[in-house]
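Why do we care about 3D structure at all? Because function follows from shape, and shape follows, mostly, from sequence. That is the central idea of this module. The next example makes it concrete: a single protein chain, its amino acid sequence, and then its structure expressed as C-alpha cells.
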Amino acid sequence: MKAWGLLLLLPFLLIQTATSVAPAITCQTQCGNITIPYPFGVGPPSCFRPGFNLICNHSLPSSPKLFLGNGTMEVTDILLAEGRVRIRNTMASMYCGNSSEEFGASKLVTWSVLRPYTFSETRNTITAIGCGTVALVTNPEGTGSPYASLCAAACPREHSLIHDRSCTGIGCCQTSIAKGMRSYGINMIGALNLTSSSTFNGVGSCVKAFLVDSEAFSFSQAYLSEDFYLANSTVPVILDWAISEGTSTSCHTARNNLSSFACQSQNSYCYDVTNGEGYRCNCSHGFEGNPYIFNGCKGTTFFPYY
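And the structure:
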C-alpha cells in the first residue's frame, strides 16, 4: 500500500516541482524602507517575472529609492494583495517660474507606462489647479480607442467662494480617465492673462494639471500659489498591474501552461482583472502572504482545542 501511495503521489510531486516559481534567496527584497515582494524584483531576471523588474537607486543623496524598470517613475509602495503600485509622477504646468509661454497658448504633456501596468481609473483623477485654465485629457494617437475628457477651473474675485476640499471648478477641477489606459496626455490651455500682482486673489498665473491618487489628494486654497508647484513637482499616482504573458491573458488560458502559471501557492486563487488584460492571484480566505511563490499563503485562522 505504501508503494502504491507513493506512485499515486508521484505525478503531483512532479507537477509541484515543475511549476514552483520563486526568486533565489540571494535576490534583494528591500530598497530603503520598501519591501519588494515577488513577482517584483531587483537584479538578474531570475529575481522577477517578465516586466516586473525594478531598479534600486543607491546613488541619490538621500536613502535608496525604488523605480520602475525604465528608471523614470519612483515607486513608493507595492500593494501586492490589491494588485497595485503607488508611484510619484510629475505635474504639467504653464506660466510657472520663469516660464516663457504665451497666454492663450496650449501645452500638451504625455505620460506612459508599459505592460504589466495600467493607470488605475478607479483610484486616479485628472486634476487641474489655477485661475482660467482648461485641461483636455486624451490618449495619444495610436494607443487604443479614442478618448477625451476635460475640466475647466476659474477663480471668482470673492476669495470667500474658494473652499478647501472642494474641486468642482472654482480654482480646481477634476475629470476621469478611461479604463485600461497605458498612455494619456493633458492638453493645458491658459485662458486668462494673470500676473503675480493680479487682484484676482493674488494667486498669479501658474496653473498645474496632473493625474493623482484621489485618496491622497484634497484641494487647498494654498495650492493656487506658485509656491505649491515649486515645492511639489510630483504627486502620488496608482498603477494597476496584472500577469499577462504571451497568450496567457486570463486565468483560463494561463492554467494551460502550469510551468508559467503565476498562482504558485497552495490556498490561493486566480481572478481576471477588469482594468486591461491579464490575471492576478490572491490568498484564499483565512490565509495571507504571497500567492506568487510556493507555499506563500499562510493560515491566519486558528481553532482552539477543546
